[in-house]
Structure formats: structure tokens, C-alpha cells
Amino acid sequence: MTKPSQTAATTKGESAKARPKLLMVLGMHRSGTSAITKGLEVLGVDLGDNLIPPQEDNPKGFFEDRELIELNERILKKTGHSWYDLAPIDPALMTGPDLLTERLEAGAFIRRKLNASEAVGLKDPRLSILMPFWFDVLQDIDVETGYIIPVRNPLAVARSLLVRDGLMLERGAALWGRYVCDALEATSAKSRIFVDFDKVLDTPVPELARIAKTFGLSMPPQSSRVLKSYTDEFLEDVLRTQKISENQLKRTGLASDIIVGVHEKLLELSALPALDKSVSSNRSVRSLLKRFHGVAPLARALDRVNEKAAEAPVLQQAHDLACARRDEALAKEDKALKQREALQQAHDLACAQRDEALAKAEDQRGEIYRLQSTLSKQRETLKSELQRETDLRRAREAEIRSLRAIARHEAETAEFLRGALEQARANINQYRTSTSWKVTAPLRSVVRLFRTHDSRMEHGRRHLISAQGLTPIFWRIMAGRAVHAKRLPPPALPPRAIATGGEAIEGKQLLLAIVIHAYYPELLPEILERLSAEELEAKLYVTTSPPRTQDVLAILEAQSLPFELIETENRGRDIAPFLIAMKQVNRDAAQLVLKLHTKKSTHLRNGETWRNHLYESLLGFEAPERAIETFKSSPDIGLLAPDGHVLSTEDFSGSNDHKVMELLQRLGVSEDIYREAGFVAGSMFYARREVFNRLTDQIIMDEFEVESGQMDGTMAHAIERLFGALAVSEGYRVASLGGISAQTTPLSKGSYQFL
Fold this sequence. Notes:
Radius of gyration: 51 Å
Distance between the termini: 72 Å
CATH class of the largest domain: Alpha Beta
Low-confidence stretches: 5-16, 451-487
Oligomer: single chain
Shape: elongated
Number of helices: 29
Strand order of the largest sheet: 5-8-7-6-9-13-10-14
Helix content: 40-55%
Largest sheet: 8 strands, mixed
Strand content: 5-15%
Number of domains: 4
């Protein structure tokens, strides 16, 4: 990084008061700008740490900021110019809207520089021809600006450009004039100084002193190391190789009298003392500047000629290449003609052989056709016979499967009826031997007697029963209810596997089991349509009651996921069928379970809204993929609920406390876990399969009540409230799809929008 010397630095107190300084070195390439810019560093000016490195044509270094050069090159390109053009750039192009981005970048660049240092130096010859752009940028920045314009013999500059870039001496001298005149025009009436490059080489200390005094910089002592390094080492003889006198400039005729005149005036300005007011005025060069700008049309014409001249070598090279290719093509043509004659002879011979082969082929084709016709007839005959055999075999296999299914069903039904009969006989024997049966024998006789009378006896019968205090017993008998409180629901019909379908997932463990109770088949397509939008490795386990089996089967066969359809008795809402399906899920060893059902909730005003919200939470916006990824990345999560559907068991227990407490003791789950875990309203969620092991091991279908429109207080309602507690008791936590980082807090009464 190029840093200013400590001896030249201003004091801390002074820097706090002074405005930051920005010094720009303007002038043509090869005119001594690098040596003078290095001198600014000796005076304490910061040149930055992003400078381009020295090169063979400038071994001492350029002292040019890389970002500044790239920005100026971009500006030139956008305005359609290059650094070696003789014609000036229209100032309107440099201040117009097309360069807005570059102006913003330039402003940020200058502010970064000024924030890092109190005195900043910038050097790039392109600045000389782009000052309208930079003045526009500096208008919005509070900075004290100054300009240093080196003065060097135009012929010396032209000779250096000839060596470096191959430019003609006349063009190099004219370019010096263009850069210097643009710099003069841009800095008129501004703080500036002209520095004779030859004097910098011969007597550098006085020239540095003039610069320091002009811009309020600190001049290091004569004995300082930084000054001696500059004068004795940096300004060595290699920098003096192009020194040319003023007389040589006039005698050669390589520069116009305008260029010569401008150079003479600049030498006069460079001899003035520091802070001389004449330095900032263009009065002495005004007529020369006017004459120089008067030849702008000629300069533009020369630029176009130069562009054409640059294209000439390329065109000549393309012409030479085309001629070479033409000669090569002619040689190839001669060779091709000879090859053509040989090929024609070979062609004639081949045609004769072909005609002979065609005649033989025609005879063979006729024989092949006859053989193909015979084979085709034989193949059709065999195909027909094979199809008949296949159809017959399939019909017999279907008949066998049907008979076997009927036999299994009849055996299951017989077994069920035997169990039901035995239970009914046991119940009857228990009733008839009970004390209540014997006590109510007279009452039953009265009831039978009353049934034979006219309805006008109804009032008397009720009065008699009420007088005896037997009203409750009477109505239990009339309703056919059990005499004792411990009576279980009637035995359930055994579930029946109806069908399987879809392509099975082979070769790896089933990841996701989707268990759906389709009590309302008309809602099943809505679930399947949402699932079809996801690419899932999953299997469907669908339960339904007997009247709906065929409708559900038709819907399942129209989709692509593998499935099992299980027919169950209509009891236990969606909970009992879920536990039956879980036995199949356990058999297939699925890792995860998605529990769904065709929910209507017709007793609620917003039942449809509730269902749509649950489906969207569990199946919308790649929810299955997010749930699976959550279980993989969070092994402590056992159950994932839809957002906003985990309720407090304290506030939403309903009339289920008695059954819940019995189940907690039976399943080995503490009441504290039950109270804290909450439960999922709507009974739809994602979970790990092992969460349900205690239920599938200990709860049977017979324990669920037959459906009769119950709103609460059933075994199904009690188990619904245990799923969260079961997950926690297995060592997991309950989370929501939208907030997996912490245990989900159950909602209290009044916070749930659907109840």
C-alpha cells in the first residue's frame, strides 16, 4: 500500500479543521505524470493501495488506481471514444443520463478515498479528456480540489508513444495538444499549477516546494529519507532519455504551430511562482485554444482515417487467406476430377453387378413372401388358441379367488356370529340370575298388561310407576338398555380386506403410510388430488363402511399410488378404523404415518372451512416433503400437527374425562403428560409409527360404540385426546408444521377459531 510519509503529515489538530484535499494530475500519457504523482506522495498525499503494477515501459510505476482506470475506460467506451482519438468528446455525452451508473460509482469511489485520508491524489491521463464527467460528480462532494498539469516537450511525448504504441510522431504530438487543451479548458479559474517536467528532473526540490505551497501541503526537510529517496533514486537517468529542446520541436515540423505555441505558453505558466493568480487564467492561451478547437472536424476525419487504416492489415490478412484457400480449392478440384473418372468406371461396373443382384433378389423376395404368408397364418392360429386358453385360465383363477374370498368372509362371519351368540347367551343368563331381574318381574308383567290396553291408560301407567319410584328402571327397560352399568357395546363385525392396487414399492422400507377413513367417498378425490401434486414414496391404507366400498374402490383404482382397501363396521368414528389399518401398516413396517379422514363436521357452521384448513396445512405447499424432512432432521419430534390445531386437554376435555382416565391407567401414561401434551383437533396429523403401538396392542374394535350420531363421550372421542400424550410418553415431543423448533403450546378456550 502506498502511504504518505510521516514527516509530511499534518498534525491531528490541523486535520480536524481542514477540508479534505483532492489533487488530480492531468496531462498526456508519457508526459511526466508518473514522476510528478510520485512527488505528491513525498508531500504526504495518499495515492491508495490499489495501484496497477510497474511494467517494462514504465519500470518505476504508474501510480494509477486500478478502479479509476477501469471506470474511465468504461466511460470512454459508452461515449464511443478511445484514449487515442484526436476529436474532443461532446460534454453533453459525459453529463447525460446514460452515465448515471458510472457517476454513482465515481461518487462512492471519491468518498471512500476521502474517508481514508485527508489528502488524496489521483492520476490517470484519461482524466484530462473526461473532466466534465468528474466535475459533475464533485459537485455533490465537500472537498477542496487542485490540479497539477505537467509540461513536457510534445515531441518527447510523441517519441515515447512511438516506442510504446507505434503511433506516428505527428499523431503523438497532436494527441499531446488535445489532452493539454482539454485540461486547460476544464481547469480554467480553478486552483492549479503547471510543472515543467525537465525542471522536476533537474531541480526537483524547488518544484516540489511550489506544489506544496500552492495546495497547502507540508514540504519534508532536505535531509529527510523520503525526499532523498525521491531525488537520488527515483529520478534517475532512465527518466531523462527522451529530453528534447524547444528548438528541435520547432525545426522538425512534426507539430503544428498551434501545438508549439501552446507548449511555449505552458512553459511560461510553469515558471510563475506559487499562488500567482495568472496561473488559473486561460487569457494567454485563449486564442490558441480557439484555433485548436477549430480543427475539430479535421480531427474527427483523421480519427476515421485512423480506424480505416487499422482495419487495412486485417483486410489484407483476410485477402491473403482467401487467396490461399482458393489455390488449395483449385488443387483439390483437379484431384477430384481424376477421382471422378475412376469412380465413374467403378460406378458403371457396380451398376451392372447391381442389376444382376436385383434380378436374383426379386426371385428370392417372391420365395420369402410365400414363406411369410404361411408363417403368418400359422402364427394367427396359434395366437387365437393361446388367447382362448389364457382367457379360460384367467376366468377360472378369478372364480377361484372369488370363491376363496367368499369362503373366508363366511368363515369370519360364522366365527363372529358364534362369539356374538355366546356373549348374548351369557348376557341373558346374567340378566336372568341378577337381583334386578327378579325384582322387576312384577313390573314386566304390568308392562305387558299395559301394552294390551288402549292409549287412554298411558297417564295412569306413568302415575303408577312414578308413585312406586320405578320411573328410571322402567324407561331403561323400554329403551332396551343394559340393567348394569358395566355392559360393553355389542361385538364388532370383523374387518375385511377388499382390494389392493397400484405399483408396490420394491427393494426398500416404506417411508410413509397414508391412512384415510373414507366415510364420505365424495370427499376422497379432494385428498387424492392434493397428494397427486407431490412425488411421494407412499402407500394408501383406506378404510370405509360396507355401503360405500364399491364407490371408494372405483376412486382408488383411478389413481396411481399403491393402496389397500379395508372394509370395517361403522363404529368408533375414524379412530377405530385407523387402529385396524395400523395393523396393516405395522405389517409393512412403514416409518411414518399420515392420518386423514373425509371430515364434514355438519354440526358446525364452519365445518367445510375447518376441513379445508386442515387439508391445506397437511397437504398444501409441499407439506408432505417438509414433514418427512422434519422427522429426518429432528429425531425428537414424534407428532407433527397442522398449524394452530393443538388444543388444551384441560379446556377441551368435554365429557370424556372418565374414559380418558381409565385409558391413561390402562396404557401406562401419566396424567401430567396428558395435561401438558394437548391434543390435535380434527384428528389429522403426521406421526412416527411407534407412537401408536400401545393402542394397537391393547385396544380392540369391540370397545368402540356403534355410530348413532354421538357428539362426545365415546371411546373414539377419548382416544382422540390421547395421541399427543402417547407421543410424549414414547420420549418424543409434539410440534406444528410451521414451528418445529420448540414444543407446541396447546391453545386455550376461546383461542381456537373453529370451535
